[in-house]
User: What shape does this take?
Amino acid sequence: MAVYEHLYGAYEGESHSAWSRFLVIPRYALREVFKSKLLVTIFILCFIYPLVATILVYLHHNANALALLQINVRELLPIDASFFLTFVQVQCAFAFILTVLVAPPLISRDLSNNALPLYLCRPLSRAEYVLGKMTVVVFLLSLVTWIPGLLIFFFQASLAGFAWLWANLWMIQAIFSGCMVWIILLSLLALAVSSLVKWRVVASGALLGLFFVPTAFGQIINELFLTRSGHLISLWATINSIWRGLFGLFVRQTGTVRGTVTNPIYDEKFFNHPLLEPPLWVSWLAVALVCAVCVWLLARKVRAYEVMK
Assistant: This one.
């Protein structure tokens, strides 16, 4: 409008603090997520196993329910580190399914519609933009992983007493850290794929391939070379080693090569050699390297403009 008309005015609406501006992105993105009936259905199905785990915890401390169902308490799973490790593994598998459905269009949709300049021309940095998109995935995955895990832990503690809580207090850190490592890895990996591929179906397929194809090749390497080093190229096997380490259940020896000497170039000692998994620090390093590569890709692709050569 022309300046001489004097019809313009300053913005008089509610102002937001600088640190919370990125929360505008997940607020509107979550609305779009829960508009899909398929996503809502899968999100609800993610709580089936936490419900089953809660029932198992309750049965351990209710003799009347066990008598009514004619179940021996010895037949139930013990509520220990192995129980919560299984919970983390199952729920993180559901979290992966949610990520494949939710995360691919988060950045690719903005890139395909050239919407990044509209975001970045406002008081919003590239880091805040990525953080806002990442918050969508972190929030959804937290609801199905460490939050129900800690609720079940404290439910068990309320029934078992203070002695059990004090003896197993370390598992709070194991549940939270194990889930958060997986959530951060999935979030960065999914956003990196989303920034590279502009088509949602292709991005979802690429994300699936990044987990299943290396896992298959890693298993082939293990079988051919009689080793467990192939787990290093499998993100699922690597994160499982980290989980078992956090819960104190990591054992490097996973099997022993046994057999009859059929080739003179091998000796009998080789056929009795234990197959050792890579040490825990190598698994942590592999996850850190993957996250670093994803951050680098996001820094290169999330820009207000793109130079075409």
